[in-house]
Structures are given as C-alpha cells and as structure tokens.
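User: Hi! I have a protein structure encoded as tokens and I'd like to know what sequence might fold into it. I'm fairly new to this, so please keep things simple.
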C-alpha cells in the first residue's frame, strides 16, 4: 500500500513538472492524472479481493440441542472445502447472533483453530462424528495465533459470535443436528 502512495506521489510530481517544463495543456494533463489514479486504484481493489479470498460459502441451517432439551436454531455458512476452511471468518467485522460458520472436515481429525486475521471475538464448539459437543473455546480473541481445540479428534467445528456459548448455556455433551451435514448418527 505504501508503494501505491509513493507511485501516486511520483505521478503527481511528474504531472507538475510536465506542466511547468512543457507548458502542457491543462486538459491533457488532467486526463493523465485521472488515468494514473484509476490505475493506482486497480491493485488496491485486487488486494482487497485477495484479502477477502473471494471465497463463497453455501448457507444451511443447524440446531444445537442443549442437555436441558432447549433448541437453538442457527443459520450457518458451511466451510466444506480446504479453501473455505482456510478463509473461515477472516476479515469479518461482525457476526450476528444466531449465525455462525460450520467447518466440516469430512473425517475425524485432531483439529486446532486459531484467530489469524480474525477481527471479532468468537466462540468455538467442537463436535464428535455423532454430533456431540466434545470441546468449547469461549471468547477467542481477534488475531490470537495460539492454536486451540480439544485433545480428542473431531468431525466439525462451529464458530459463533463471542459470548454465544455462555448466553445459550452450551456445554460438553450437547448435540448438533444439521440436515445438510453428514455427521454419523449416534
């Protein structure tokens, strides 16, 4: 980004010199400056799309069923591919209550999550293949590179807005139901 501003500075400097030295027509010089600014903006837009990954996520529904029988319905973005799982909730500035991202690894693995390039606090709920909650991380802090997760293998992880786990009273042993996710039945 700093290089872009240096380029802009040099462009303006060259523009000013060309007017003084060559007596350039004002209109032609302005078009040059406008063109330079447009070209300068192109890499910035490309970098922003690259930062956000340009990754799209399918949307589904999920229900967390508590030990007390209460159900919490969610709208979830599904992170099913390696690209989607890598992108996750990076660069998001908000996540509404009742929404989340469900990472399905397609197999049972020991999973560690981190908060690299994540701008909002998140709760993480880790699920066994049968949909049972086996681990919780509360209020993971933005930008924290510490890997977190349970010692046992999991099939999926649900990221929620920070504080949602406590607000809903989610505990180890609660269950996830998700029609579009092929978690093994207990």
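Assistant: Happy to help. Inverse folding works backwards from shape to sequence: for each of the 186 positions I chose a residue that suits the local structure. Here it is:
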């Amino acid at each position: 980004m700093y290089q872009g501003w240096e380029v802009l500075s040099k462009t303006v400097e060259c523009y000013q010199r060309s007017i003084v030295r060559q007596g350039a027509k004002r209109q032609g010089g302005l078009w040059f400056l406008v063109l330079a600014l447009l070209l300068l903006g192109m890499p910035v837009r490309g970098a922003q799309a690259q930062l956000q990954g340009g990754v799209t996520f399918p949307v589904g529904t999920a229900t967390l069923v508590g030990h007390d029988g209460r159900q919490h319905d969610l709208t979830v973005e599904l992170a099913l591919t390696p690209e989607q799982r890598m992108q996750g909730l990076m660069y998001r500035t908000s996540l509404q209550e009742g929404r989340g991202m469900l990472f399905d690894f397609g197999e049972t693995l020991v999973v560690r999550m981190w908060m690299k390039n994540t701008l909002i606090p998140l709760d993480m709920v880790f699920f066994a293949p049968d949909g049972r909650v086996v681990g919780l991380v509360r209020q993971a802090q933005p930008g924290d590179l510490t890997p977190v997760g349970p010692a046992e293998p999991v099939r999926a992880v649900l990221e929620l807005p920070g504080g949602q786990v406590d607000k809903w009273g989610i505990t180890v042993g609660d269950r996830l139901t998700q029609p579009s996710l092929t978690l093994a039945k207990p």
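A useful reference point when you look it over: The chain has two domains: 2-52, 59-177. Feel free to ask if any position seems puzzling.
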